[in-house]
Amino acid sequence: MEFQRTGRYDLMYMKTKELGWKENHGIQNIGIEDSQGNRIVDQRQVLKIWENYITELYDRPNRPETLEVEPEEEVDTDEKGPYILQSEVEKAIKEMRKGKATGDDDVPGDVLKLLGEGGLKTLTKLMNTIYESGEWPKDFTEVTMIALKKKTKATKCSDHRTISLIAHTAKIIAKILKRRIERKIEDVLGEDQFGFRRGKGTRDAIGMMRIIAERTLEIDEELCVCFIDWQKAFDRVNWTKLMQILKETGIDWHERRLISKLYMDQKVRVRLDRGETGSVQIGRGVRQGCCLSPILFNLYSECLTKEALDGLGDFKVGGQIIQTVKYADDLVLMAKEETVLQGMIDRLIEIGRCYGMEMNVEKTKVMKISRQPTPVTIKIDQKQVENVKCFKYLGSLLTDDGRCTCEIKSRIAMAKAAFSKKKNLFTSKLDLNLRKKLVKCYIWSIALYGAETWTLRAVDQKHL
Question: What residue intervals traverse the membrane (predicted)?
Answer without folding.
Answer: none
